[in-house]
């Protein structure tokens, strides 16, 4: 019914473009049923007639178009995998796109990348597989969004790199290596991973807020505020009066902090995370920059 093609731009230079062509004969209603829901109604499409000439339409015009033998129709994007999402993201970040989306940076989107991952995990653990599928879509949105904002890369490049990594780390599937069981695969993966160049920077402080705070405390970093000292002292009183109930007390105290944040329309988890980042990094550096730029 359709084919993906690589085309050279009409001006004759060496740039290439992606097209997804629908080749006639087809009734427009068939094309609309198959592809119409994947793109916004106002997305542009183009019909090239076998006898010459081009006609410009939008996706909402699909039911009224007829493709004869030799005619072909160019859709606004590749309609498989992440193609429709990539098209929508391009529009959102384009000249006539969304003001909020165009203001975002990879740093400001970090909280959403983390939040959506947690929500997907929640649905999976709850056994809500319909919800899990939906939340995976939200995670994919964050990957597409970040790929669109990062310099010197694209979503396609990210996907290609990951495919290459999977082939490289599965020589028992794509090469001549032999493994006996799953544990051997895991060991092989770690061995191959260790041979690859490490990332240039490390940011081990990006953990859930309580984990990050515990790690910071082990490193000797803690707030010096009166609030911190008073609450710490109060907890020690509760511990002394209720031996054997430390976990219960900690849980209720953490819950109380969360509830207080909710009542005052603040996110206690995010507030603690930013506080840890600030104290660990100080007024300079990438961590402080991220803390300042996080979208609220």
Task: List the keywords.
296 residues; two-stranded antiparallel sheet; 3 domains; Helix Hairpins; 5-stranded antiparallel beta sheet; elongated; 11% strand
What does this structure look like?
53% of the residues lie in helices and 11% in strands. α2 (83-92) crosses α5 (129-149). It is of the alpha+beta class. It has 13 helices and seven strands. The strands form two sheets. Strands 1-2-7-4-5 form a five-stranded antiparallel β-sheet, with no helix packed on it. Strands 3-6 form a two-stranded antiparallel sheet. β4 and β5 (54-58) form a beta hairpin. The protein is elongated and about 90 Å long. The relative contact order is 0.07. It folds into three domains: 2-78, no CATH class; 84-194, MazG-like (Helix Hairpins, Orthogonal Bundle); 209-293, no CATH class.
Q: Which range best describes the helical content: under 10%, 10-25%, 25-40%, 40-55%, 55-70% or over 70%?
A: 40-55%
Q: How far apart lie the N and C ends?
A: 46 Å
Whole-number tally of structural domains: 3
Summarize model confidence as the mean pLDDT: 85
Q: Under the CATH scheme, which class of the largest domain?
A: Mainly Alpha
Q: What would you report as the Rg, rounded to the nearest angstrom?
A: 26 Å
Order of helices and strands: EEEHEEEEHHHHHHHHHHHH
Q: In CATH terms, what is the architecture of the largest domain?
A: Orthogonal Bundle
Q: Main β-sheet, in a few words?
A: 5 strands, antiparallel
Strand content: 5-15%
The total of helices stands at 13
Structural class, by secondary structure, is: alpha+beta
Strand sequence of the main sheet, in spatial order? Answer: 1-2-7-4-5
